[in-house]
């Protein structure tokens, strides 16, 4: 039985309070809050009351099915799946706290989890073409900053960082002695990993930091200061980072080699795909990319195998061989 008089918003506050020891990243917490708030607003609209006045007892399988149906009308499949997971975790917490007798999310349909399909940049030389053209600084408007643009691309192509991971890097994230540098990264679920970088990447970082000192001589220099800056000397935002990468694709002439729906993440997928092509096993890919599941890393190896088979199948000699076989059979 539901706890009498418990408002839904109070239960959600308790959920976030209980998660504090997990040390979720700000990005994760913000996503959870959006998912809870979005569906809560639809629940309230359907029941004709303010979201802040909604009682926990009103959250039933029937009301949730209606709210998630409305949510699905205006959101992508991936967003619906993430919101379903958030609400499932929240209501599981409510069960554990004896706020509700059971979790009604079992009665709410959810999209099937789409299989991971890596979306690396197309073309064997595309990453090199992209880096070379960007380093030249052409086509980037009135104030080119090739040192920063190359660093962002390299962080994706050489270390496989996600957008959030890049934006959370600080000057203290680069650790170790020259020649033995590592990049300390805090990833999804607050999982930390350390990625080794080689001397060329060290030089890219050094060139970028030198350009920052020239542009912003008064910028903070402590270890907690952000590594990646925008053109005003502030920490670069999510939209700014995505725009930067898309601009590099266009100005480098490789925009037609970027898979549909992929942008900055195409750099990470290129990194992972090349690891698989060069013989890295699933455990190594998992450690370097910060995957939570070994199965996710294995997908890159399997996808690479399918792509190699597909590439081999278009060999023109196969066409001649097929005609020969047909003749022999005839």
From TrEMBL:
> Keywords on this record?
DNA recombination, DNA-binding
Q: Name one GO molecular function term.
A: DNA binding
Q: Which organism is it from?
A: Actinoalloteichus hoggarensis
RNA-binding keyword on record: no
What are the residue boundaries of the Tyr recombinase domain, all occurrences included?
116-313
Q: Which Pfam families match?
A: Phage_integrase (PF00589)
Q: Where is the Core-binding (CB) domain?
A: 6-95
The record's listing under CDD domains reads: DNA_BRE_C
Instruction: Tell me the Gene Ontology biological-process terms attached to this UniProt entry.
Output: DNA integration; DNA recombination
Protein name according to UniProt: Tyrosine recombinase XerD
InterPro entries the UniProt entry points to: CB (IPR044068), DNA_brk_join_enz (IPR011010), Integrase-like_cat_sf (IPR013762), Integrase_catalytic (IPR002104), Integrase_recombinase_N (IPR010998), Tyrosine_recombinase_XerCD (IPR050090)
